[in-house]
Design a protein that fits this description.
alpha+beta; Alpha-Beta Plaits; two-stranded antiparallel ribbon; 16% helix
C-alpha cells in the first residue's frame, strides 16, 4: 500500500509552507484549508515542510 499525505486541519495554520515546498504543485491553499490534488506523487516533502505537524503520511509503506 502506498503511503499518502494527509492533513489534520485542526493543526493547520494556513501558512502555505507545504504549498511552496511541493515540487508537483499538488497542494492548493484554499481560503481556510489545504487540498491535495490528483497529481500528488506521495513524496512526503510537504509533510516534512509543515511547521505544525499538520501533514502526516498515512497508510502502509
Ligand atoms: S506528497 Fe509530495 S507531491 Fe504530494 S502534495 Fe506533498 S509535496 Fe506535493
Ligand atoms: S505547511 Fe502545515 S500549517 Fe502550513 S499550510 Fe501547510 S499544512 Fe497548514
Amino acid at each position: 500500500m502506498t503511503r499518502k499525505p494527509a492533513i489534520d486541519r485542526a493543526f493547520c495554520m494556513h501558512c502555505g509552507a507545504c504549498v511552496g515546498a511541493c515540487p508537483e504543485n499538488a497542494l492548493s491553499l484554499e481560503e481556510v484549508w489545504i487540498e491535495f490534488l490528483s497529481n500528488c506523487t506521495n513524496c512526503g516533502i510537504c509533510a516534512r515542510a509543515c511547521p505544525s505537524g499538520a501533514i502526516f503520511m498515512e497508510g502502509g509503506k
